[in-house]
Structure formats: C-alpha cells, structure tokens
Amino acid sequence: MAKNPVAENSCTLAIKAIPNAPRSEVVGWLGAALKIKVHAPALDGRANEALCEFLAGELGLPKRAVTLAHGDKSRQKLVRITGLTLAEVKTRLDV
After folding, report:
1. Beta carbons within 10 angstroms of residue 57's beta carbon
2. Which of 1, 14, 23, 41 has the most CB atoms around its CB within 10 Å?
3. Rounded Cα gap, residues 13 and 21, in angstroms
4. What residues pair up with 36 in beta bridges, in sequence order?
5. What are the extents of the domains in the chain?
C-alpha cells in the first residue's frame, strides 16, 4: 500500500491564542501549546483567520497550508499544518 506523502508531512499544533494584541507575535511554549498573540480582534472569526495567516507566514508556507481544526470560539485551538512535520514546525519557529 502506497503511503500518502501529504499525511506524512502534516501535523496538528496546539495553540493558546491571545487576540487583540498590539502586534502578532509568537510568545513561546506553554507546555505542549504554542502561545501566539494576534493583532486582530476576536470578532467574526477575524482572529482565527489572522492566526492562520500569521502562522503560515512564520513557517514559510502558503496560507492554505494552515487551517483551524478545533477551537474556533476558544483561546485553546488546534491547527492543522500541511507540508511540515511537528519537528520541522518547532525547528522553524525556534522558540
């Protein structure tokens, strides 16, 4: 059976999102979750969209490679990253 290369190069990442920050930035690790401040307000999904876009930019991936998998109305989120393994994500973020 052939392996799916997309499934091999994807991962999920736990995020603690802080909306309405002065600027978007990666703060650091809180246990297994990555704390990220997002400039956008938590209205109409704007913070979720900004979070995915910011994370894609930080990882050097296209916007469509980072999607919200769980937690659209919570600060605790789970994002799916296509194109990188969890180890590669941690290396690229270097926090």
Report:
1. 13
2. 14
3. 21
4. 17, 26
5. 5-93
Round to whole Å and give the CA distance between 47 and 34: 16
Report the top-level CATH class of 5-93: alpha beta
Other CB atoms within 10 Å distance of the CB of residue 51: 25
pLDDT 10s per residue in the chain (95 long)?
Answer: 445 554 568 999 999 999 999 999 999 999 999 999 999 999 999 999 999 999 999 999 999 999 999 999 999 999 999 999 999 999 999 87
Q: Count Cβ neighbours within 10 Å for each residue of 5-29 and write b for 16 or more, e otherwise.
A: eeeeebbebbbbbbbebeebbbeee
